[in-house]
Amino acid sequence: MKIAVLPGDGIGTEIVAEAVKVLKALDLKFEMETAPVGGAAYEAAGHPLPESTLALAKSADAILFGAVGDWKYDKLDRPLRPEQAILGLRKALGLFANFRPAICYEQLTHASSLKPELVAGLDILIIRELTGDIYFGQPRGRRTAVDGHFPGAEEAFDTMRYSRPEIERIARVAFEAARKRSKRVTSVDKANVLETFQLWKDVVTEAHKDYPDVALDHMYVDNAAMQLVKAPKAFDVIVTGNMFGDILSDEASMLTGSIGMLPSASLNDKKQGLYEPSHGSAPDIAGKGVANPLATILSAAMMLRFSLNQPEAADRIETAVKKVLAQGLRTPDIYSDGTTKVGTVQMGDAVVNAL
Amino acid sequence: MKIAVLPGDGIGTEIVAEAVKVLKALDLKFEMETAPVGGAAYEAAGHPLPESTLALAKSADAILFGAVGDWKYDKLDRPLRPEQAILGLRKALGLFANFRPAICYEQLTHASSLKPELVAGLDILIIRELTGDIYFGQPRGRRTAVDGHFPGAEEAFDTMRYSRPEIERIARVAFEAARKRSKRVTSVDKANVLETFQLWKDVVTEAHKDYPDVALDHMYVDNAAMQLVKAPKAFDVIVTGNMFGDILSDEASMLTGSIGMLPSASLNDKKQGLYEPSHGSAPDIAGKGVANPLATILSAAMMLRFSLNQPEAADRIETAVKKVLAQGLRTPDIYSDGTTKVGTVQMGDAVVNAL
Ligand SMILES: CC(C)[C@H](C(=O)O)[C@@H](O)C(=O)O
Ligand SMILES: CC(C)[C@H](C(=O)O)[C@@H](O)C(=O)O
Q: Are residues A138 and A218 in the same domain?
């Protein structure tokens, strides 16, 4: 088994180092190989996703990814910007199924913007389609408008699209995931306006026939954005497209108040996966040794479960993380009165000790 | 001056009746004419936006709109569904500038899902472009995929697009609005992924040169969805496209916890406008006399200010609404211990008395 380790930019290096430390402490048999990605790769090799990094990622069973991006790359042409690495990896490896849990840890309930009773025990799973939609649809670009409000003016355009099999496979992923949870799926669309999401709704409804034990409901994306604020615990599994999933999964993760705790997984149909924290590269705190490594450590646990067939090892990591929280250890992002403030490395060490 | 009164479906009739009562009590000179719209129009005339209703709307200086929609129309073909009336009115009248305030009233702070300190005094204005984007872009439809992940499969597609002048005019509306407020505009885009929103960002940045007294920042839509939950008071004016604005304005209105209080305005370049509550037709409580008419009454105030050139009358209504809240009167949606529960008609009467 091979893990490609891509730390990336900002706090990426620091948090991935802790996850690697935890993985090594498990004493399992796998190879790890590190390569640059994002801004770091642009600096080293002139491209955010160099050939060699992509080749490593393709050859690996799983990718442990830190984060990419920094303000200093904002002025680069779009194809050279750090985030192109992540879009490139998703596309090249066909990582169509993005799992984004939004979990509120008991000890961190107070950190949420929401009233404690609305988020205590929150455990929802957002499944976002990750290789289709307006992210990758062609044609796109700039041109002279021939119709619309201002014919003759310069316009820019993108294409939203989904095919039947693309929708069906992500719907099945959602129904299967719901079976292992509370057996409820909410499919989020905008079928009242978009052709793409009328097909989405039709295909999800058809696929549902094979999962009579799972309850399905449909919700418009604007309403979903509201219901997440109003009563997040009413959801179990949410399945939606790439664009809506981008927005709703970030909204949901912020509801927990502890985005530094949330892992994510992006899988293809061969169970190859990219695992990364839900948060970003946080250049403002990079190099200071204060970043929270737990989201990355929990991403490593997802990796063991989904791609490396080591569910017991995944359980061990998750139990260890709960233990360090119970011990009162907190990085600054989740610190509150009466707990013990620790840095990135100390937090990683504590998880290793708790294993 | 002529007002087209379009009550629509569900609670629409009840709440619009109260707004009309308040308008009449002001004793100003304008004509009001009522017409069916949405499901009610489909029942009466076979179409959600009959010719006669559209003609009335076009000939009026302003439209007072209730709400449209009911589950019973879900099975109709899309062109006949109630929400097509609202899309049709926006398009036919060129109502490109949608104003959606998210205000947290002092007495209702506790009703928010968010902790009181995060929303007390909240006053943000979302300006959503309303006649462009993927809502109206052509081509759209179904076809056989020729490329992508599953060539040969059935796919559905839509076109996102914005032209330079469309972006520029809504940006100017936002900068002008900010001038009358805290002079800060946040432009929300997804320039890291979409061609359309790279142009959006470029044009907003250029238009900003004419408003050096207004501060401008840019934020990705996923981040905006998070920051609204984390620190909503950090925003002043948010300007964004039709699709992102649909999602973010609903998210923001729910943050206040009292969506029954939030008005909206949709204007064209001749200051003709459509005024409607931010909430929907709520078929579950229709006909029970319990709907909150205040969002509609406050929409009538916006109408007086923006389209009918009666700012003093608008102020009078807004002051009257604050007065009834101070008197402790509450419809069920905003009721809490120690206040007085009233119905739709009583609330309307109270506003009239407070004028
Ligand atoms: C960086 C960006 C391209 C990316 C996305 O929009 O998918 C990010 O926001 C995410 O959610 O992983
Ligand atoms: C009913 C629907 C078409 C509409 C929209 O998406 O614009 C509604 O959600 C709104 O925000 O006014």
A: yes
* Residue after which a domain boundary falls, among A232, A255, A278: A255
Structural domain tally of chain A? 2
Specify the pLDDT at position B147: 87
Q: What is the pLDDT of residue B172?
A: 98
In 3-state terms, what secondary structure has residue B286?
Answer: coil
Centre of ligand 1 from the C-alpha of residue A237, in Å:
20
By the 8 A CB rule, do B112 and B251 touch?
Answer: no
Chain A residues in contact with B164 (beta carbon < 8 A): 150, 153-155
Counting ligands in written order, the one closest to the CA of A249 is: 1
**CA atoms of B25 and A114, how far apart (whole Å):** 41
- What is residue A330's predicted lDDT score, i.e. its pLDDT? 97
From residue B314, alpha-carbon distances to A87, B22, B59, B305, B322 in Å are: 50, 11, 22, 6, 13
Q: How far apart are CA A113 and CA A160, in angstroms?
A: 33
DSSP string of A127-141, one letter each residue = EEE-SSGGGT-S--E
The pLDDT of residue B148 is 86
Residue numbers belonging to the annotated binding site of A: 90, 100, 128, 222, 246, 250, 280-292
> Is A251 near ligand 1, meaning CB less than 6 Å away?
no
| N residues, chain A | 355
- Are residue B60 and residue B78 in the same domain, yes or no? yes
Q: Which ligand is nearest to the CA of B246?
A: 2
Averaged pLDDT for residues B122-127: 98
A236 is catalytic: no
Is there a single domain that holds both residue B85 and residue B171? no
Q: Is residue A106 part of a domain?
A: no
Residue A33 contacts B where some CB pair is shorter than 8 Å: no
Residues 156-175 of A with CB under 8 A from B: 156-166
Tell whether ligand 1 has an atom less than 6 A from the beta carbon of residue B222. Answer: yes
Tell me what the mean pLDDT of segment B254-273 comes to.
96
Of ligand 1's listed atoms, the one at least distance from the Cα of A68 is: 1
% of chain B surpassing 90 pLDDT: 97
Domain end position, chosen among B255, B276, B303? B255
**pTM of the predicted structure, to 2 decimals:** 0.97
Q: pLDDT at residue B170 above 90?
A: yes
Percent of chain A with pLDDT over 70: 100
Helical ranges in B180-220 per DSSP H:
195-207
Averaged pLDDT for residues A141-163: 95
B16 and B106 assigned to the same domain: yes
Instruction: Ligand 1, residue A130: give the atom nearest the CA.
Output: 7
| pLDDT > 90? residue A241 | yes
Domain holding B131, by residue range, is 123-255
- Domain contains B118: no
B223 and A CB contact within 8 Å: yes
